[in-house]
Specification:
heterodimer, A: about 400 residues, mainly beta, four-stranded antiparallel β-sheet, 29 strands, B: about 100 residues, alpha+beta, Ubiquitin-like (UB roll), about 20% helix, globular
C-alpha cells in the first residue's frame, strides 16, 4: 500500500508519498513554484490522473494535469508545438478558459449577483477553488469557481463548460460573497446515486441536484445565521464545508461560519451538533473512512480571530456524529499556536487504521495514522497550506 | 523578427527563456504581437489578456523603447525599433511589496 498526499500552498504544489505505515515521507516539489495552488485532487477511477488549480493575481487561472501521479504535468490541450487550430480552422479551446454560460438555450442570461453592499455586481471569473474528479471517468471533472459557478470538463480538462442550471436556478442574482469572495468551494458526488451532487458556496449556502446538474435547489433549512434578517432565509448562509461518508450519502455534516450542523435527509433539513466544542467556528470538516459516524473539525476562535482558542491546536473528534466531542492533542502544539486550517486542507485516507491529515496557514502538514489519537508534523516549513488531499494507492 | 520579453512565471509556463522571437505580419501592433505570441504558445492564452474581452490583465503592463504602451490602442503600430527587432516588446508584471 502507498499513501500520496497532494498539498496545495500559496507558493506551489507538493506531492508527499509514504508506505502503509505512514511514518516516513518523500517530498517532491514545489511544482509550479511561486503560484497559488488552490486545490489538487486525483481521479478515483485512475489515481495517477491528477488535476491542479494553479492561480495568480497577475496571470489568472491555469489548469494542470498529470497522468503519472504528479511526476510530470501538462496543461490539457495546449502542449507546446501542437497545432493551435482544428482542421476546420477554428481556434482550439484552452484549459484555463472558464466562461460563464449566458446563452439563451442553457444559460438564461444571468448577469449580476449581489455585492457586499447589496448592489448588483457583474459575475467575474477569478479562480478555481476546488476540483472534483468524477468517481468513474478520469476525464470528467467538476470545478467550483469564484465568482460562484460550477464547471465541468468531459475531455480531461481541455474544455470547460458551465453547469449553468445551478447559477440560473433562481436565487443566483441574490448570492453575496463572503469575506473570502463568492466561491463555490465544496463539491460532493453521491457514490450511490450518479444523478445526485451537493455543492456549497460562501456565502450563499448548499445546493443539491438530483438530475445530474440540470436543476438545483437550495438545501439550507435549519441553518441559522445571525446576520440574516430572515431566520428562514433560503440562501445567504456562509457554509464553510460539507462532508459525507460514501456508505451513508444521505447523512451530511457541515462546518458553517458558526455552528457545526448535520442533516440526515440529504440536506432537506439541518440540525446543530456543535455540542461541547470550545467554539463552533471553523473551516474543515471530515468523516472517518470506516466509521460513518466519526467526524473531525478544527475549532477556530472566531470569525475575527482566525486561530485556535488559547493558542492550542486541537482537532476535535465526535464518534457519535456530533454533539459529543473529544479534543485530540497528542503531537499537536498546545501553546503559542496561532495558525488557521483552511476548508480544503483536511483529508482522510482509507487505510486501517484510518489516517487523517491537515495543513495549516503556518506551513505545517500534520498527519495521524491512528484515527487522530496521535499526530506528527510531516513537514513544518511549507508555504501557507491551502489544500490537502490524500490518496490510498494499492 | 519581433522580440518579446516575458515575466518569470510566463517564461516557465511557456518553457522559454527571457525573450521569444516571433514572426509578425505587418502592421506590427500590440494586438498582432500578442496574437502571434498566443498562437505560438497557446498555454499563454488567458494569462496576458482576458479570454473573452481581450483586455490586458490588470497587474500587467506593456512597454517598449522606454514608453509605457499599456493604455495605447492595441491597433496602434509599435515603434519602428520593435518592428525591426532592434528593441524588445516588454510584458511586465506589477511589482508587489514595499
Amino acid at each position: 500500500m502507498k499513501t500520496r498526499l497532494l498539498v496545495g500552498t500559496r507558493k506551489g504544489a507538493f506531492v508527499l508519498t509514504s508506505d502503509g505505515k505512514r511514518e516516513k515521507w518523500d517530498i517532491s516539489g514545489p511544482h509550479f513554484a511561486g503560484w497559488e495552488i488552490y486545490h489538487m485532487k486525483g481521479s478515483p477511477a485512475d489515481p495517477d490522473r491528477l488535476y491542479a488549480s494553479q492561480t495568480s493575481g497577475w496571470f489568472g487561472q491555469i489548469i494542470q494535469r498529470s497522468s503519472d501521479g504528479g511526476k510530470t504535468w501538462e496543461q490539457p490541450g495546449t502542449k507546446p508545438g501542437e497545432p493551435t487550430t482544428t482542421p476546420e480552422g477554428m481556434p482550439k479551446a484552452e484549459s484555463n478558459k472558464f466562461v460563464y454560460d449566458s446563452s439563451s438555450e442553457t444559460g438564461k442570461p444571468l448577469t449580476t449577483h449581489m455585492w457586499y453592499d447589496g448592489t448588483p455586481h457583474p459575475w467575474e471569473f477569478k479562480r478555481v477553488w476546488h476540483l472534483e474528479p468524477s468517481l468513474t471517468d478520469p476525464d470528467t471533472v467538476y470545478a467550483g469557481v469564484e465568482d460562484a459557478a460550477l464547471f465541468r470538463t468531459t475531455d480531461g480538462g481541455k474544455n470547460w463548460h458551465e453547469v449553468s442550471g445551478l447559477r440560473g436556478h433562481g436565487s443566483g442574482s441574490k448570492w453575496q460573497p463572503g469575506a473570502g469572495g463568492l466561491g463555490l468551494h465544496t463539491i460532493l458526488l453521491d457514490p450511490k446515486n450518479p444523478n445526485r451532487m451537493f455543492i456549497a458556496i460562501s456565502a450563499a449556502g448548499c445546493f443539491r441536484t438530483d438530475d445530474a446538474g440540470k436543476t438545483w435547489k437550495p438545501i439550507n433549512k435549519g441553518l441559522k445565521s445571525q446576520y440574516i434578517p430572515d431566520p428562514n432565509a433560503e440562501i445567504g448562509h456562509c457554509v464553510h464545508r460539507i462532508a459525507l461518508h460514501p456508505s451513508k450519502p444521505d447523512v451530511l455534516f457541515m462546518q458553517k461560519h458558526w455552528d457545526v450542523m448535520r442533516s440526515d435527509n440529504a440536506g432537506d433539513s439541518w440540525h446543530e451538533v456543535s455540542g461541547n466544542l470550545p467554539t463552533d467556528f471553523g473551516f474543515p470538516i471530515d468523516v472517518h473512512a470506516h466509521e460513518p459516524n466519526t467526524i473531525y473539525v478544527v475549532p477556530i476562535k472566531s470569525d475575527s480571530e482566525h486561530f485556535p482558542p488559547d493558542g492550542r491546536l486541537r482537532v476535535y473528534r465526535s464518534r457519535s456524529g456530533g454533539n459529543e466531542w473529544e479534543a485530540l492533542t497528542k503531537g499537536l502544539p498546545q501553546k503559542d499556536c496561532y495558525v488557521n486550517v483552511l476548508r480544503d486542507a483536511m483529508s482522510v485516507d482509507s487505510l486501517e487504521p484510518c489516517g487523517i491529515y491537515f495543513g495549516t496557514t503556518g506551513g505545517q502538514v500534520y498527519g495521524s495514522a491512528d484515527g487522530g489519537n496521535t499526530w506528527t508534523a510531516i513537514v513544518r516549513d511549507f508555504p501557507a497550506v491551502l489544500s490537502v488531499e490524500v490518496q490510498t494507492l494499492k | 523578427m519581433i522580440r518579446v520579453a516575458l515575466p518569470f512565471h510566463l517564461r516557465n509556463l511557456a518553457h522559454v527563456g527571457t525573450e521569444v522571437e516571433l514572426e509578425v505580419k505587418e502592421p506590427v501592433t500590440q494586438r498582432s504581437v500578442l496574437d502571434a505570441l498566443e498562437a505560438k504558445y497557446p498555454m499563454l492564452r488567458g494569462t496576458i489578456r482576458d479570454h473573452v474581452t481581450q483586455q490586458r490583465r490588470p497587474f500587467l503592463r506593456f512597454f517598449a523603447c522606454e514608453q509605457d504602451l499599456s493604455l495605447e490602442s492595441p491597433d496602434t503600430p509599435l515603434p519602428e525599433a520593435v518592428a525591426t527587432g532592434a528593441e524588445p516588446y516588454l510584458i511586465i508584471g506589477a511589482i508587489a511589496g514595499g
